[in-house]
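User: New here, any thoughts?
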Amino acid sequence: MVLETAANIAQIMTAIVAVVASAYYWRDQRRKRIKMEEYLKAEKKDNPNRHIHTTLHLMANIGLTEDEILRASFRSRHIKRLVHVNRDTSLADDLLFEYQD
C-alpha cells in the first residue's frame, strides 16, 4: 500500500516537473526572440543605412549564442535572414539578420 502510494506521488510529481520545465523552456525561447527583435528594430530605427547584422555582431551585442540567434530568427515573423556571398569564391560565407515589419 505504501509503495503504491509512493509510486502514484512520484508519477504526479514527474508530470508537474515536466510541465514546469516545458513552461520555463518556452518562456526562455520567447524572451530571447523578443530580445533579438527589439535590438534589430532599434538598430533599424537608429541607423537605417546599417541595420543588417552578422551573427558575430549579434553574439557580441545581445549576448546570445549562435544557436540561440538562429532559433530566434526561425521563430520570428519579423527577423529576415539574408545570405552574404563572398565575391572571390561566389559561395555563401555568412548569415545576416534584419528586422522587417
Notes: The chain has a mean pLDDT of 94. The domain at 2-99 is CATH 1.10.10 (Arc Repressor Mutant, subunit A). The first helix runs from residue 2 to 46. The helical segments are 2-46, 55-62, 66-75.
